Amino acid sequence: KLAEELVPNTVSISQLLGVLQNLLREHVPIRDLRSIAESLANSEAKSQDIAALTAAARLSLARMIVQNIFGNTDELPVMTLDPSLEQLLLKSLQQSQQQGASGLVLEPTMADNLQRSLAESVQAQEETGVPAVLLVTSHLRPSMAQFVRNSIPQLHVLAYQEIPENKSITVVASVGGRS
Questions:
Q1: What is the bridge-based pairing of β-strands 168-175 and 156-159?
Q2: Is this structure's pTM higher than 0.90?
Q3: CA-based R_g, the chain, Å
């Protein structure tokens, strides 16, 4: 019933399904369909892009996403990208979007090095017994999640905005820089 109320007025069925598929692909439970629907209805004026709608849904589900990864802990150990690497990736993403491509386009050696660094950081994180989480800007989050999806499936990629205000973060590694 909720989908029937939401879909005709704000998003198409295919957009709703696209958002739900994106959430499931990233192992985000969709049991709180009401929050998802409300976030889509509220973001309707801003965008009809599925990636933007997915980001809006993830923001509305942020507390649940973080709780599913970390449990009830208040301090979240995370990895980040070295600031210069993050800027380089943002520029690359921006250039690929200007050229009509979707996602992050990286030079093969850089992609291999990034993947290797991420895998090493994830392994170190897992050895300490805590979940592996990479915290990035909201612009990079979808591309980075896609980049690691098949090669490092245990790595969770979150945007800074997805961390609830009542949680504190501890950066345990800077990927592409010094740990």
A1: unpaired
A2: no
A3: 17
3: exposed, middle or buried (Cβ count in 10 Å: 0-12, 13-18, 19+): middle
**pLDDT tens column, 110-169:** 889 999 999 999 999 999 999 999 999 999 999 999 999 989 999 999 999 999 999 999
| 3-class state of residue 124 by DSSP | helix
Core vs surface per residue 16-50: b (16+ CB within 10 A) or e:
bebbbebbeebebeeeeeebbbbbbeebbeeeeeb
Q: Which residue is it, tokens 């994180």?
A: 125
- Encoded amino acid at 51, one letter: A
What are the residues facing 173 on neighbouring strands?
79
Strands of 168-175's sheet in order across: 156-159, 133-136, 75-81, 168-175
